Amino acid sequence: MKESLLQALDGLETQLEEALAQAQSESDLLQIKGRFLGKKGELAQVLSAMGRLSAEERPQVGVKANQVKEALCSRLQSSLQGFQQKVLDQALASDHFDITLPGVPVEFSSMHPLIQVLEEINTLFRRLGFEVRYGPEIEDEYHNFEALNIPEDHPARDEQDTFYLKTGRLLRTHTSTVQIRVMETEKPPIKMIAPGTVYRSDHDLTHSPMFHQVEGLWVDRGIHFGHLKGVLKLFVKSFFGSETNLRFRASYFPFTEPSAELDVSCVFCHAKKSACPVCKDTGWLEVLGCGMVDPNVFEKVGLDPQVYSGFAFGMGVERMAMLKLGIPDLRLFFENDLRFLKQF
Ligand SMILES: [Zn+2]
Fold first, then answer.
1. How much is the pTM?
2. Is residue 105 part of a domain?
3. Residue 269 Cα, ligand 1 centroid: separation in angstroms?
């Protein structure tokens, strides 16, 4: 019995060599592996017969069986590596890579022109010490109107101008709401700008129902109109160029008193006032509204108007971008036409 098992074990290596000589592919190899080393393979059959050996014979056959198993495994492994190397060699011999060919170009995207201009405005005010603050786009009537001294019968509160939600809330019509929220919770000095998206029920050549604003606020003891003029002059000359002139025209806003509109000298005709469709030959372009914070607004947020004063201003980012980049139609910003966007 013992002799026949030892013989069978000896024979396995020769049988494996014969089988490997016939193998054509990696899958042939796997089949051979199963045939010899599988659960019901040749080796397993020999091992299962060991149970019938005597206690003395068993270790002798066992040692031999382990040697044969190791030999089979390593032979199969080297054979497998040989096949893989052959496949790789064939692939390398048949494929040709020209490493001097130029690569596939990667197209870089760029920032949307509106965001570029918005970032520039933010950066200029940050340099002047203004902090960038954000607030919710869904607001309540109090923060959007009442706290800003806009009475209930004011036309701005009309449903035709404001998007009201079913909950009674609304989409903010300006980012002045952020100024109110900051003043409610923080003590002056407050020096901030609030950039963001605002919504109005308006849609034509020069109006979009969604647009962007940057509103600014500086509140402290002793802030006066001179500070307002100084800050806006620095901003305008940095944004449109140092040769730009500016003028203030008296105006009215519910939340500032006195209020003014700021005009800059026309950046298209350079104030030559002839055949300029943008400034309509006036030489001036209206760019933003501003004024000293109305004492009523201070009272709403719990600040003493006898102690504090401040100025506020607000501008439309689309308009600033149209003037700065010479874009004639507001709708171009929102059509996502790559031919347009790639120019910036
Ligand atoms: Zn002009």
1. 0.67
2. no
3. 4
